[in-house]
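Form 12-C: Joint structure prediction
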Amino acid sequence: MSDCNGCHAATVLALPERKGAAPTARVAVIGPPNSGKTTLFNRLTGLRQKVANFPGVTVEQHTGVAQLADGREAWIIDLPGVYSLSPRSEDEQIAHDVLTGERHDTPKPEAVLLVLDATNLARHLMLAAPILSLGLPTLVILNMADDLRKRGGHVDLKALAAQLGAPVALISARQGEGLEQVFDFLAGAMPKPALRELPVLQDVPKCREWAGRIGNQARYRPPVPPKWTRRLDALFLHPVAGPLVFAFVVILVFQSIFTYAKPLMDGSDWLFDHSGHWVATHMPESLLRSLLIDGVWKGVGSVIKFLPQVLLLFLFIGILEDSGYLARAAMIADRTMAKVGLQGKSFIPLLSAYACAVPAIMSTRTIENKRDRIATILIAPFMTCSARFPVYTLIVLAFVPSRPLLPFLSSQTVAMIGLYALGFVMAVITARVLKSSILKSGRTPFLLEMPSYRWPTLQSLGLRLLDRSVVFLRRAGTVILLVTVVLWVAAHVPFSHGKPPTLENSLAGTVGRTIEPAIKPLGFNWKIGIGLITSFAARETIIATLGAIYGMDSADENNLNLQKAIHRDLTAGGAVALLIFFAFAMQCISTIAVVRRETAGWKWPLVQFAYMSIVAYLGAFLAFHLIG
Amino acid sequence: MGGQKLLSGTKSRKLKGPIDKNFRRPHTETVLQLSSNSQNEPTATLMDLRRGDSATLASIELPVDDARRLMELGFLPGTEITAGRSAPGGDPRVFRVDGSEIALRRETARLLKIRLPRKSKAS
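Section 2 - Result
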């Protein structure tokens, strides 16, 4: 759930071929799912790849540089988690192929960091057999040393190293404990593993037996079961209390978006208005001033005002992900998923689509069944992504009066939750249709490992919010700024008698009025139409566009409230129609691009775009005519 | 466990009566499973375990690939498995096996045959 718009690419370096002079090693990080590979990778490289407390977060290989003490560098390749080297899903295939040198974009690693969960060592050691049999220099890393210690587990590292024929390090990647052992390995000679008898890899019982024997000889004492995980599960998986707790948390989040985030939003409102006013009074009347004030301030500024709310939403998502609750949510939702013909594994990508559909669609790689995977890809953009969120907030604030329905529940909160539910319901209906027709398939067994609950660290949550702010502001500063500037130009040509035209007669106005007949049945006028067109670049651009349009159109330059302005231009039915259009339409170029890449062709993205557009149009049409 | 090997068809059927009701499983299916057992082998499945119950896994009646993944997660014949909580509605259910907790759907759990369930105190 981390990033939109390919900002993975921005933080991950391309892997260079090995240079003759500089002895840099390429080292792969491998291990079972949710053993903390990416946390270690981030520690070693200083990068910030997405981590969370559930299996299957990493679905592609990432590369970064670790700076060694002697000034040399090591290239670290982070891989998706695997249970064995017999891949079943796309992400496991990637890990397998990188490790065996069968992938063209990544040269074969020269050494391996095998990350195992120290709290479940006996079973995780099974993976050591196939990894050691690769014959590459290997450091066996037992992660989560803090958990092991706290819960009274123990392991004799020397004995384990002797048994495995490879060095062993006990670390806690989360706490940054024991990392020097990893750096020492990277800087050292990296010996090949000593030859030891390994079990037949195809024979799982034999491998488990082998792992158990090694564990015994290393005097491994498993930690006591996590007490708090049992206690929390007794609450969260309780037939009555569980769903109630979930409902309460959801209400709390949306309620706080309208209450606690409101002062922050008013603050940034004030800041933008006053700084805009200051610029306006200190610049001579000119086209440049108009571009700055009407385009940048009123356009981009009206999007940036939503940053506090977006961050609050991501804080909540971050807590859910880091604590381990998400796996439980997937379990609770599995019944609904089963009814529509999907499996619980589809639920985690769908949940992450609440942040952004792009990483969600990539995380469908963990779904083994091809048809299940395509169905999940096709429904993911119906989930309410964070780009829809400012649009919903704006319209809800403008049209829904703030009335308390219950002491803890305002009408705006209900409207917002309703919009989130709307997208989910449409996704479920679509899945049902797909899975009972063109994407029918046999069932793959649903297996989901339940991670232990962990406290989300303040550092991890802080970094998430920081990264999220960067993504949000970058979108505002690139795509949205560009669209706003283009819009401003289109609103100022063609010149007649050396003067810019009125908005209605400008290029932008002409385009808007041209499509007006098509959107009139939905209750939208040509100004909203211009916003709709620009929103296909990115959904929240409509706010910038409307901010700029009303800014340019308004006679009273210094007193413009976007909420009041759209209230003037839309009826209640039109507002609902606009919300429904945004809930269903696939207005996102990045999503189309990632669907094309993941399904290897144009067929599915085009089908998806056409389907979602039709649903959006019909839904908005019905809403406008039923509500009026 | 050896002393309790009274898995002749009729006895087990009697034994399974209340369990069937618990899991709302069609009775015919149980009979079918019993009759398909040629040897004196286990007839109960993971679905017959109630929360806190433990049993030894006997066999996995799934295609090789699926069975392999289950085994990699710890569901090896001979391993002790404890039933944990289930999602509201009873499906899927968490099973404790080999140091981890794995959620399985009913449709999968009923393909994992166990040897005589042994009562243990609920956690």
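Section 3 - Comments
The domain at 2-118 of chain B is CATH 2.30.30.90 (SH3 type barrels.). The mean pLDDT of chain B is 71.
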